[in-house]
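Human: I'm a chemist; would you kindly supply sequence and structure tokens for a protein?

Assistant:
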Amino acid sequence: MVIRVGMVGVNTSHATAFATAIGALPDATLAWVWGGEVRPDQPDAATLARTHGIPAVVRASTDLLGETDLVLVIDDTGGGRSHAGLARPFLQAGVATFVNKPMTLDLAEAASLFGYGTPVTSSSALRFSSEIVAARDRVAAVGALSSVISTGPGEWFYYGVHAVEQLFAATGGGVEWVQRLSWPQRDVAILGYHDGHTAVVQTLRDAKNSFVLSLHGEHGWLTVETADATAFYQGQMAAAVTMARTGVPPVAAAETLEVLAVLRAGEVSAERAGSRVALAEVQP
């Protein structure tokens, strides 16, 4: 069975990245695309369809809902503000749904998307970094962690999800509190875990674009740099297609919501001049 995929939104570079990744999978086909808002630096729906051989450009995002096995909600209007509204008709109809990062801008709204009984997932593509996957045995060999440093580009919430997600991909969740300081050039956030270790998440706006993870533990240390974007986009789309086939999301809802809670707690912490904010305070 070939999974029929629909794409909702083209106003992000991820439209091209995901179309390319789906096109490389033997068990999925990108059957339709809906455009919505257009960005001058990205191809519109018709251009994307011609480039990637997508058979249909629909007028309304739900036009082919009944002929869809998996929908990719990637519209970037408002930095994710549109995601929940665009995803709900598919979730209500039982269509497996991938929601691009950030899942939503509101934690309660994100939690509600898991309440339909329909397979749904959202993540940064960094979760599927081939370099991190290949390093997992070496991560375990570091032993009990003392500290981890995760670095990525951009602003805290919209791009910080990448640095937080690569951290979770390597070490899992369990964050208890966040303490974030912010400057025009960068953000530095300390994450405190229930087991006592800490992590530092940095989002840099004055340095070369890079995703680097450094772990320090009782038996040694390890640094992993993610550079293969083709691999992490393809891994992310392969995981979404597998979810549509099996009904099992690749990331547990609790972990996805914890990533969002870390980002929100970081926002609140910076608003309070860097004071410590417990995740329990911001979780719905």
